[in-house]
C-alpha cells in the first residue's frame, strides 16, 4: 500500500511539472511542435500511465517511463530552438563529432589494452558491452559515412578513416547482428543509388566480403563465439524468444510492464545486457500486452514509414532508419531511453517531424545531390 501511494504521488507530481513546463514554453513560444511530434509525447505518456496502472513492478516501470518522457520532452525543446535548415546541419555535426571521438578513443584503447575495454575477449571500447558498441557503429556511423563517401562523393581521408575504422572495430566486437546490418545497408545503398549501382561492384563486394570472412584473423572472434556455445545467431536469439513467449503466455492482455524482465537468460557463453530480450516487437507484447503493444507497433511502423517517405531525399537519414528497423529484429534498444543510440534515434525522428511542415526543405536537399 505504501509503495502504491509513493508511486501515485511520484507520477502525478512529475506529470504536473511536465505539463506546467509544456504549457509555459508554448505560451512563451519557446516550444514548437506539430501533430506528429505531439503523438510521440502522447505515446510515451501512455507508457507512463500503463506503468502506473498495470506494471508488475510499478515503481520500477514508472521510473524508467518518466525518464523516457523527460528525454523526449527535452529533445523536442532543444530542436525547437533552431530553424529547419540548421537542424540537420547540427545533426550531422553531432554524428561526425561522436564518430571521431568513438573511433580515436577505440584505437587508443586497442593500443593500451585495458581490461575494461574487453568482455569475454571481445572489444567493447568505452561502451558497457560489445553489442552496444556494434549497435552504435552499425546503425549510426556506418550508414552515415557510407552515404557520405559513396553518394555524396566525399573523398576526404578522415571520412574514409572513420568508415573503415568503424568496420574494423565492428569486427573486433564480434557482433554478428552488427555485421549483418552493415552488409544489408551497404547493399541497399548500392541498389538504391543508381549513380553508384553496377552489377560489377556488387559482385566484387560479395567476393571481397567472402575472402575477408574466410581468411582474416579478426573474424576468429565470430568463429570462437559460435564454436564455444555450439550455436548460431538465430539459435542464440531463439533462447530469448522462448522466454518471450512464456512471458506473453502468462500475461497476454496487460503485459508485465515497461522494462520489466522477469524471464532472463544467462549462460557462460552469452552475457546478455539486463534489458535484452532478443526482438523489439516480442518485447513490446511482453511488456504491454497484445492490445497496447499493437497500438505501439502500428504507431512505430507508421512513424518509420512516414520518416522514410519524408527523408527519401536525405539518404543518410533514411539509411539510419533502415539500419535501426533491421537491427530491432535482433535486439531491444529502441524503446530503452538510457542509451546514446536510442536517444539519437528518437532525436532523428523528432528532427524529421520538426522539419516535415516545410516540404520545400526536403526538395532543396534533393537538388543538392542531383
TrEMBL record:
Q: Do you know which InterPro entries this protein is assigned to?
A: O-antigen_ligase-rel_domated (IPR007016), WaaL-like (IPR051533)
Segments traversing the membrane: 9-27, 33-54, 66-82, 94-112, 133-150, 162-190, 202-223, 281-301, 313-337, 343-362
Q: Where in the cell is it found?
A: Membrane
Superkingdom, according to UniProt? Answer: Bacteria
Please give the chief subcellular localization of this protein. Answer: membrane
Q: How does it sit in the membrane?
A: Multi-pass membrane protein
Q: Which UniProt keywords apply?
A: Membrane, Transmembrane, Transmembrane helix
The chain positions of domain O-antigen ligase-related read 162-273
Recorded GO cellular component terms are: membrane
Q: Which PANTHER family match?
A: O-ANTIGEN LIGASE (PTHR37422:SF17), TEICHURONIC ACID BIOSYNTHESIS PROTEIN TUAE (PTHR37422)
Protein name per UniProt:
O-antigen ligase-related domain-containing protein
| UniProt source species | Poseidonibacter parvus
Amino acid at each position: 500500500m505504501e509503495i502504491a501511494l509513493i508511486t501515485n504521488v511520484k507520477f502525478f507530481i512529475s506529470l504536473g511539472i511536465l505539463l506546467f513546463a509544456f504549457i509555459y514554453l508554448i505560451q512563451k513560444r519557446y516550444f514548437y511542435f506539430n501533430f506528429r511530434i505531439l503523438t510521440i509525447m502522447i505515446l510515451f505518456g501512455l507508457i507512463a500511465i500503463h506503468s502506473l496502472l498495470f506494471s508488475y513492478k510499478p515503481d520500477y516501470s514508472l521510473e524508467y517511463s518518466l525518464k523516457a518522457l523527460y528525454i523526449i520532452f527535452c529533445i523536442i525543446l532543444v530542436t525547437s530552438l533552431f530553424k529547419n535548415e540548421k537542424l540537420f546541419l547540427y545533426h550531422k555535426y553531432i554524428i561526425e563529432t561522436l564518430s571521431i571521438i568513438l573511433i580515436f578513443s577505440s584505437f587508443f584503447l586497442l593500443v593500451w589494452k585495458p581490461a575494461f575495454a574487453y568482455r569475454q575477449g571481445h572489444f567493447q571500447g568505452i561502451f558497457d558491452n560489445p553489442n552496444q558498441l556494434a549497435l552504435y557503429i552499425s546503425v549510426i556511423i556506418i550508414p552515415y559515412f557510407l552515404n557520405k563517401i559513396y553518394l555524396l562523393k566525399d573523398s576526404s581521408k578522415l571520412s574514409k578513416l572513420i568508415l573503415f575504422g568503424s568496420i574494423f572495430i565492428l569486427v573486433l566486437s564480434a557482433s554478428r547482428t552488427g555485421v549483418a546490418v552493415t552488409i544489408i545497408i551497404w547493399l541497399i545503398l548500392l541498389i538504391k543509388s543508381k549513380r553508384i549501382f553496377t552489377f560489377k561492384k556488387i559482385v566484387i563486394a560479395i567476393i571481397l566480403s567472402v575472402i575477408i570472412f574466410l581468411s582474416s584473423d579478426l573474424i576468429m572472434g565470430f568463429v570462437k563465439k559460435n564454436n564455444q556455445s555450439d550455436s548460431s545467431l538465430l539459435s542464440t536469439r531463439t533462447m530469448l524468444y522462448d522466454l518471450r513467449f512464456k512471458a506473453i503466455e502468462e500475461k497476454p492482455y496487460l503485459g508485465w510492464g515497461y522494462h520489466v524482465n522477469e524471464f532472463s537468460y544467462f549462460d557462460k557463453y552469452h552475457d546478455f545486457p539486463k534489458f535484452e530480450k532478443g526482438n523489439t516487437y516480442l518485447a513490446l507484447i511482453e511488456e504491454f500486452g497484445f492490445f497496447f503493444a499493437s497500438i505501439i507497433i502500428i504507431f512505430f511502423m507508421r512513424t518509420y514509414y512516414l520518416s522514410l517517405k519524408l527523408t527519401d531525399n536525405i539518404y543518410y537519414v533514411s539509411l539510419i532508419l533502415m539500419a535501426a528497423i533491421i537491427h530491432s529484429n535482433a535486439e531491444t534498444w529502441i524503446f530503452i531511453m538510457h542509451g546514446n543510440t536510442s536517444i539519437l534515434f528518437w532525436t532523428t525522428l523528432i528532427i524529421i517531424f520538426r522539419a516535415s511542415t516545410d516540404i520545400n526543405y526536403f526538395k532543396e536537399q534533393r537538388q543538392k545531390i542531383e
